[in-house]
Design a protein that fits this description.
Largest interface: A-B, 11 and 15 residues
Radius of gyration of chain A: 35 Å
Structural class of chain B: alpha/beta
Helix content of chain A: 25-40%
Number of domains of chain A: 3
Strand content of chain A: 15-25%
Shape of chain B: globular
Strand order of the largest sheet of chain A: 2-1-3-4
Oligomer: heterodimer
Organism (chain A): Nitrosomonas supralitoralis
InterPro entries (chain A): GGDEF_dom (IPR000160), PelD_GGDEF_sf (IPR038367), TackOD1 (IPR040572)
Distance between the termini of chain A: 53 Å
Order of helices and strands of chain B: HHEHEHEHEEHEEHEHHEEHHHHHH
Radius of gyration of chain B: 23 Å
Number of helices of chain A: 15
Number of strands of chain B: 10
Shape of chain A: flat
Strand content of chain B: 5-15%
Protein name (chain A): GGDEF domain-containing protein
Number of helices of chain B: 15
Strand order of the largest sheet of chain B: 3-2-1-4-8-6-9
Number of strands of chain A: 23
Domain GGDEF (chain A): 346-460
Largest sheet of chain B: 7 strands, mixed
Number of domains of chain B: 1
Helix content of chain B: 55-70%
Pfam families (chain A): TackOD1 (PF18551)
Structural class of chain A: alpha+beta
Chain lengths: 460, 441
Amino acid sequence: MLIVFSLEETDLSTEYKNNFKICHFSDFSAWEKERVTPSVFIIQGKDKQYISSVLGKVRKDSDFFASLCFITDPAFPYDDFLLDGRLPQPANLRDEINQFDNLLESLKNNETYLTHQGRLIKYFWLRPNFVLQPYHDWQHARFYRYPLLEALSLDKSDSFEWLRNLANSKIIDPIMLIDRQRECTYCRSSHLSFIDVCPNCLSIDIGTQASLHCFTCGCVDVQEKFLHSGTLICPKCHSQLRHIGSDYDRPIENYRCNSCSQSFIEGEVQVRCAMCEKEMESSELIQNEIHSRRLSDKGRTIAFRGEVFDLSSGFDQLNFISRELFIHDLDWMMVTSRRYPNINFSLFGIYFANLPELVELFNHVRLLQMLEFFAQQLRSLLRTPDLSTRTAENMLWLLLPNADEQGLIGFHKRIESSMKSLLEQSEHKLDFRFISTSSQKLPNKENAELLLARLYGELL
Amino acid sequence: MENLNQTWYLFQAILSRYQDFQYVFMLIPFVLFLELPLYFINWMSAFRYLIKDAIEAPLTLHYFPHVTCAITCYAEGKAVQSTVISLLEQIYPGHIEIIAMLDGVKKNQATFHALVELAPLVSQYPKRSLVIIPKFQRGGRVSSLNAGLSRARGEIFLALDGDTSFDNQMIHYAASHFWNPNIVAVTGPMRVRNARKTIMTRLQNLEYMLTMQVGKLGFAKLGVINNVPGAFGIFRKSFLQQVGGWNTGTAEDLDLTLRIKQYYKRYPHLQIEFEPGAVSHTDVPESFKDFLKQRLRWDGDLWYIYSNKHKHGISASMMGWKNLIFLLWYGILFQIVMPFSIVIYTIYIAVKLPLYAFILSMTLVYAFYFCLISVQYILYLIFITDRRKEDCNAIFILPVYPIFQFITRVWSALAILNQIINKGHLDSAMAPLWVLKKGKQ
């Protein structure tokens, strides 16, 4: 179904009529009464203002904000950032609608899309090659705007702030650096004026002054003091200065403050914000990088899973300690066992090589269940003083105190048998690897950090 | 040793019985008829000027015409910057337009970049402008100068070299002369910038003092200046355009001077002036070899100009009797005939006389020239120099100078011979061969 918005009575060509069902509306409110489910929206006509108003309403619609939207005539440059371009030929249009529908189907449909972050992800997801481009607007306080963020945002909050959050949570990736600009420390405006002032009294009343440096006596003074009826004569040693480079030259001090008479090489630069009128030093300015951006892998994962798939949640019941603490304790154990040979321990590593691939095979809920089951079994194998940590999403480390070579072999057997059921569940697709060592085998000079790195290397 | 002893006895004998040694008198014609009167007249003229200058009240005019400085650049590299800066630094209230014509820009990228680097500096000086004319096809000095002339907007046109720099009052002094509508060209003293580098440059430094500063001053005040040098010539642009600018071929400066002189009979009021205050500083060849190479061209060009290009122009009906006589005397006799007579004379006495007599004779010649130079140098130091302290250093080179002069004269004869036999004017670094061939052969 093509929803055509048009002020005039003009019609789409017959080619479209033959291929698609077409519904005409004079404006968005007329459509809202009926809410005919659209395949695409088409805004027809040359009135740019009209295009802009309909488009704005489409992108704010709670259900169809992400729909394809085409125009037949040029729109305002700003609106181009919210459009899918000119109306393609019927065959191409058909392809685009099909692709759009496929993507829409694969989209995990849940409440996520009520939030503005979810709306953004949906918009991106439905346009696989979409790039979020900034729009340069000199009248805007920050010189750049992201029209799409402004349209999809549910409130009027700063789109740059939102963009920063999106970038921090790695939902969007930068593609290309478009500009790097300085912004006001107080209001983040880019409308700044730079003025050089005297470094001594900060007066703006400064000017260049021609000075001379006499080679004979080293006197440096204003050129006027040297000039006597068309001849340069040093005011101090009275020698005649005839040739630059051999009798005299121009010193570097080139500015003079008219308020305090200070001579200086370079003025200090003061920055004044045109928006909030506050003054600051140029070093205080905030540097803002303007990028074009696209949806990240993480963003795509959210799109088709409904949420971020975090492997670590499967191991939640293992009561991990932090990596730093684990290394600290391991170090302590290593030092202790070297000093007292009767004290021994074992280190055991479990590595899941192909979790991301498994995500593709099973849905994430099942995989999560499997991992949770494994974690349960693992927990039953661990004794109270055993410590565990995770150095990567798929790398677990267990520190087993008072477990010698024999104890380690026993532990290895037990964990292998518990893995059997997990393997069966995963149809033998799960690729896990074990590595272990006991205190007797450790070389003398190694520390915990190196030990972990060495073992991890052996696993790969 | 025996020879030296004999020379000494002979010398004593001369002192007692002068008339017995006829060959000594062979020297007299040259000295008496060629050199001494020339120096004498020159110095008299210089003194006349100095006295006049001391007596007359200085006239300050509020005349500051638009000036164009055309710099011919080639492979000077960074050195060209000091030329341009010395022009920017001129104490002159009028506008100074600097045109840098860079010949063969492809080959001389370093010079080009050195010029481009100056652009931001120029904007700091009020009433100064810099135009760079990059010439892709190398056309030589003449084509550069004519290109500059066609582009010039000033009333006064300065033809300058890229390796020459100037005192900061040069334009002030030079331009003031053009207040007088009869003045068509002005030149000033050229000093050696790299005098302290080698013995060769020290010798040339002394030579420049006596010929460029004293010689030109005296001759100019007599109205018979021999040449407006190519590295430092100041012209009234309208007149320069009237004579058609520079002409293809080497020694374009001497050619232009002679062409200006050929207006003298028809326009007797025209003058070429010498301004002692318009000082320029130039680099001279540092090695003996480079010096000889430079002179080979200069002296060879003299013959080319006098015998080929201006064969018919050298006449009283064109340049007037005064300039003709001077030209025959200084240009032909002094510069062309004398080198040959010196060579022939030296060979003659070397063959004819016994060795001791030859040494004696050469010693006498040396002593004579040493005295002549010393007197001139002292007079120069007392009356002429504007940098007395600096010029005092040249005193140490005085004993060597007569030998240098002798070698220069002999080399001059060879250069002229080379020109006559080999057409040396076609072998010039100033322009490519295809350009030189277009000139009058």
